[in-house]
Amino acid sequence: MKRISIAISALLVALACGISSCKKDYEAPPDTSGYDPMLPVTHTIAQLLSLPQGSAIDADVVIAGIVVMDDRSGNYYKKMVIQDSTGGIEILVDQNNLYNDYPVGRKVYVKCKGLYLGAYGGNPQMGYTPDAAGSLSNIPAVLVSDYIVKANYPNPIVPDTLTLAELASPGVAKKYLNTLVAIKQAEFTAANVGVPYAQQASLASATNLTVNDCSGGSITMRNSGYAKFQPYITPGGNGVLLGIYTRYNNTPQIYIRDTSDVKFYGQRCDGTSPSIQYILNDGFTNLNNWNAISVTGAQVWEVVDYGNPKPCAKMSGYAGGNNVNEDWLISKALNLSGFNTISLTFETAAKYSGNPLQCYISTNYSGSGAPGAASWTLLPATYDQSNNFTFTGSGTIDLSAYKNQQVYIAFKYTSTSSAAATWELDNVKVFGE
Q1: For 224-242, how does the pLDDT look when each residue is reduced to its tens digit (9 = 90+)?
Q2: Dihedral of CA 43/45/51/54: which sign?
């Protein structure tokens, strides 16, 4: 009888939930961004850097600092930089996507006992056991939480404003190593204007560019070939440069976090205006610069909350299954008059099997309607081959043959009933000099 009673009670509860759509309310996880564990700090970064190199730190040394450089843009790899009011240090960590845990602006504590101090090209580092050549290894991923403790986020970072003359000698300016600095009246040297920030990684792991100021100073900007901004084109103006000051032996260097650190919008030191002008510069907050035309299929181009940085344009023929599609994303008319050279760059990311995305140019498209009524020329470009949504630069595509003409740029997507890849498109730029 007792078992029957329990069964009937359970059935009544189930029926009640079915009638009233019983739900369990789940609370959102607590916001811990303001939490600071307040670990006792024993040393400033400057005091830490005065300790011996090459042997494990054997005392209970604890430092605290704010992350001023992470790996979000790909210009740093498996390392980050923190600084306090006395200096900065590079920390080697055997972990990808460090910015998820340690973004720029996060305060961290580092329990240094068992770690090693070292230097690469004279630039201070902290990491794990040195190899036979004395180079530090990265802190193993499984041990990171033993040494690095997250605290509150975000924290403001105010860079020191310095001249290139003050940074010309790393030995003299060593207190600024691994710190965020701001340099006024900076500009790329003429030979480094209008070129990609770095060569593709298949050609060089990193590229050096020269930055001057209006007082005759210079510094090397070093950019990784793996950086997401690798294909972006350097501006021709003058302004403020932000970056992490480092050294390679006696050569002063600066690393940017991303291209937003390069604020070169004004006239150059010689009084000339920036030579590069953007005819189209679209990060796809909307599709206002484009006509999205569906020739076949129900799926269409749209703006989504992904990108480099987000948002971006996306097209997929998959909706509950693979579908036949032909969809074009065609720019508004672009006037290429008044330029000697014109270039096109963009970025793509893709996943799943299917046809490649294609980029075309036309001089006789009407500006609306079916693309099949116009003539289109296929443009050579590099596309994402990772099958893992890795934004990949197209390379710089020369459009100078179309100068003094009105053109349309188009991206053509196709899919079949057996294969429908997803393609994302971002940072489409047409620029001339």
Answers
A1: 999 988 877 788 889 999 9
A2: positive
pLDDT bucket at 27, cuts 50 / 70 / 90: low
Average pLDDT over residues 43-58: 96
13's enclosing H/E stretch is: helix 2-20
Biggest distance spanned by C-alpha atoms of the chain:
98
E-state strands within 299-370: 302-304, 312-316, 325-331, 334-335, 342-351, 358-362
How far is residue 287's CA from residue 313's CA, in Å, rounded to a whole number? Answer: 8
Nearest one of 169, 409, 405 to 313, comparing CA atoms: 409
In contact, 316 and 421? CB cutoff 8 Å: yes
Mapping DSSP to helix (H, G, I), strand (E, B) and coil, where does residue 288 land? coil
- Is the model's pLDDT at 52 over the cut of 90? yes
- Residue 421 is which amino acid? A
**DSSP H/E element including 138:** none
Q: What gap in Å lies between CA 412 and CA 415, rounded to an integer?
A: 10
- Per-residue pLDDT band at 249 (split at 50, 70, 90): very high
CA distance 384 to 211: 31
Distance set, CA 161 to CA 156, 187, 268 (Å): 15, 16, 19
Report d(CA 223, CA 229) in Å as an integer.
9
Q: Beta partners for 389?
A: none
> In this model, does residue 26 exceed pLDDT 70?
no
Cβ partners under 8 Å of residue 122, min gap 6:
170, 247, 248, 249, 250
Rounded distance, CA 394 to CA 103, Å? Answer: 28
181-208 confidence digits (pLDDT tens): 999 999 999 989 878 889 989 889 999 9
- For each of the domains in the chain, give its residue range(s) and CATH number, in order of start: 45-150 (2.40.50), 160-275 (2.40.50), 280-432 (2.60.120.200)
Enter the tokens of residue 431: 């620029």
What token pair was written down for 350?
A: 């893709």
CA distance 396 to 430: 10
pTM for the model stands at 0.64
